[in-house]
Amino acid sequence: MTAVSGPRPTAADPAPVRPADEDLRALFGQSSVVFAALAGPTHVVEAANPAFFATIGEDRARTGVALADLMPELAGQHVLALLDEVYRTGRPWTGRDVRVLLGGGAHAREAYFDLTYEPRRDAAGTLTGIRVVGVETTQVTHAQRLMAEHRALLEQIARQAPLAEVLDGMARCIEDLAPQQVLVSVLLADADGRHLRHGAAPSLPDFYNRAIDGIATGEGVGSCGTAAYRRAPVVVTDIATDPFWAEFRDLAGRAGVAACWSTPILARDGSLLGTFAMYHRTPRVPQDSDLALARVFAGTAALAIERHRIEQAEAAAEARARAAHEELARVVRAERELRADAERRAADAAELAARMRAAAAAQAAAPRPGQCQLGGAAGCPDAAEIKVADSWGDSAWGCPRHVEEAIINLRSVFIANEELGGLAAYLRR
Length: 429
Description:
Layout: H1 19-27, E1 34-39, E2 44-48, H2 50-56, H3 67-70, H4 78-89, E3 93-102, E4 109-121, E5 127-136, H5 138-158, H6 163-177, E6 183-189, E7 195-200, H7 206-212, E8 215-216, H8 222-230, E9 234-236, H9 249-255, E10 259-266, E11 272-280, H10 288-365, E12 386-389, E13 395-398, H11 400-412, H12 423-427
Antiparallel strand pairs: 1-2, 1-5, 3-4, 4-5, 6-7, 6-11, 7-8, 9-10, 10-11, 12-13
Helix pairs in contact: 5-6, 5-10, 6-10
Organism: Micromonospora auratinigra
Keywords: Coiled coil
Pfam family, one: PAS_4
């Protein structure tokens, strides 16, 4: 292994590197383990391995500089205060998954380390500095957070949380997990797959979400419309120059986004469910970790959307079943009412027929009178020649003159109903 040598010591320099430190430098020379030998109370970087400089940035690969000057972003961070404490107390310190913000501005990144600070002493036992040994655990930490967040999303889906809640939570989760700032958007495909509707985009401006709600799927329709049409990921690293964004370039500029990577969300049968997009404030080329993150959560979104569609289909089927059951119940009630009415009518008809038969039998048994019965209160001495009857079962015998008069009056004056009666009423006039 090749060690990184420190500067040649001068009278103003801290104590020279001891042989034990030389051994450590040799041991960690080409290792992925971060190693640095710091000297004095200002923690001057006396020596460090390539992994240390690769971690803080190759443009800062120099020694003989106080750590706070070499890495000004450490000001106010706990790691620097711990170095001061170890130098003051002489007691070593070890920490796991220590969060460190590296770099500044657009190049700032969050990193995690397992760190050990060990006091360095000279032959007389005097504290001269601190040895820093660390292993970057950023990927492991992010993976653990990813798995925890992913598990939480799956639990939401399993308990049938509303789709909007699941997608919004997923978008926020990715925005928190991504090593560099991203703005996440999920669009949902219409049933015909020809248009995309707003699903979730918690960090994009409302005017932007409204403008793209309902965009068509097709070749060259931004990143998402094209990804949906192709059924394949589409990476646009610079919206300002990409022809896919010609129609939406001004809109993207007002929203402050400069790159967009879109991944189609597909069902298990290959049908389109929507798109999953990651926007960036500056033009960017995706890293493998970015694309892996997109694939993982596109699959999660597919699970949530399919579950939502299944629930919608089940709810619609249940609604149709309830409507059919209610209609059947209404038809059954109507049929019962009609049957009851028919039975009442049949009973009435049977009763009327029985009454008519009884009246007819009574009339048939009655002897023919010798004198007209239709003469009214004054009577009529003429012979009874003609028998008349009505639908109520009443009958009488009369002379031709009074029979004709009765027929005329019954047809033009009387209404044959139960209140007014028929021939019997005429006879009692």
